[in-house]
Amino acid sequence: VRHPAVCEALAPTSGYDVVQQFHRVRARTLLLCAPLEIDDYAVQSMPDASPIKWHLAHTTWFFEQFILKSLVEDYRPLDECYERLFNSYYQTLGVVHNRAARHVLTRPTVADIMAYRRHVDEHMEQLLYAQPENASLASLVTLGMHHEQQHQELMLTDIKHAFFNNPLLTSYSGHKPKLDAVQPAIELQFVSFAGGLRIVGVDAKADHFSFDNEQPRHRVWIEPFALSNRLVTNGEYLAFVRTGGYRRPEHWLSDGWQAVNAEGWERPLYWHESLESEFTLHGLAALRLDAPVSHLSYYEADAFARWAGMRLPTEFEWEIAAANAPVKGNFFESGALHPTPAVRTSPEEVSLEQLFGDLWEWTASAYSPYPAYVPAGGAIGEYNGKFMCNQWVLRGGSCVTPQDHMRATYRNFFHPHSRWQFSGLRLAR
Ligand SMILES: [Fe+2]
User: What is the pTM of this model?
Assistant: First the structure.
């Protein structure tokens, strides 16, 4: 499945730019549904995942709730019940439908939800054309577009999980995986960085979009460190599995060892028990040994690093290393929908490959507020800040992240046991 590239940064400079970008983002969400059958829209394979139809409605709800209801005086919702059904976690707005039971929402129908999207899109367009100079409106719409892009990624990770749990192992893309001849992965080498006082994060007044959790810019003290030039491969992780990595408690954090035993983990989530193939968005594919190992929990990434005699990078080491790198890589727009082997981009020196795209990289940093962090005011302040407990930071984006959604300061976060995201690791020492 090839999708039209959307590569300009999502940073509108006028009201009319906002309208265009708004429609582009909204259209892409629908494009992601093109390979699906109507029966696929309601499935929820686990509490962490959501039905496709819920994603379609919730991203719409976001614009309605935070923009139309507050800025359009005579705005009439299409259906008052949607306020509760499609609220994800904004408790200060009222009662929220049980997250684990989103699959019971067979009604409203998919057709109803498509009508809801059209209703909100029409009112958003009218508002944006009526108030092209309204800067706070533009920034809210930009937030809503980035929110929708986060859900575009979730739609792909959630449908992958649903298809994996169905013995038919359906290919989302409808394509057979390309079985390129497997080359040896490029040699694992390390790039060193000096220590010292460094600046990380982003200023709230920067001329580009950022989430509140990336702010403010602040100083950190860094000891000298080195990062591996590429992500850890399936071949390297296979050696960990074959040498009893999942049976030896000394490699694991206590909580990780508990997860291994409670969940019966023996290999990465989507690997077949033969250890020769893995489930992808193109269906079951040969396990390419030179491609990055993916869909690891934090516990697995951490255990592998310890087994290898190294560690995970902190989020600040990662950010310092990526600060001047171009935001290029195997993003959603490549159409690969799967991480691909690293390619050496510099013939003369060892360079950091795969910093952006391919896989979210687990870091050794707990997801916590930066010094002087202030969440946005009102209900929208629930977006990021209240999750700063018991989750870990991932950096860099993945092969299902839209490219114009990513930047070096971006902090993604998941619980350490989560495995259904496109997550992998880079080594540090
Ligand atoms: Fe959301």
Answer: 0.95
> Quick one: tokens of 405?
């959604």
Distance (angstroms) between ligand 1 centre and the Cα of 379 equals 13
Q: What's the CA-to-centroid distance between 267 and ligand 1, angstroms? A: 30
Going residue by residue through the chain, which has 429 residues, state the pLDDT in tens, using 9 for 90 and above. Answer: 333 333 334 555 566 689 999 999 999 999 999 999 999 999 999 999 999 999 999 999 999 999 999 999 999 999 999 999 999 999 999 999 999 999 999 999 999 999 999 999 999 999 999 999 999 999 999 999 999 999 999 999 999 999 999 999 999 999 877 656 677 899 999 999 999 999 999 998 999 999 999 999 999 999 999 999 999 999 999 999 999 999 999 999 999 999 999 999 999 999 999 999 999 999 999 999 999 999 999 999 999 999 999 999 999 999 999 999 999 999 999 999 999 999 999 888 999 999 999 999 999 999 999 999 999 889 999 999 999 999 999 999 999 999 999 999 999 999 999 999 999 999 999
Residues, CB-to-ion distance under 5 Å, ligand 1: 88
Exposed e or buried b per residue across 390-429, where buried means at least 16 C-beta atoms within 10 angstroms of its C-beta: ebbbbbbbbbbbbbbbbbbbbbbbbebbbbbbbbbbbbbe
**CA-to-CA distance for 301 and 252, rounded, in angstroms?**
10
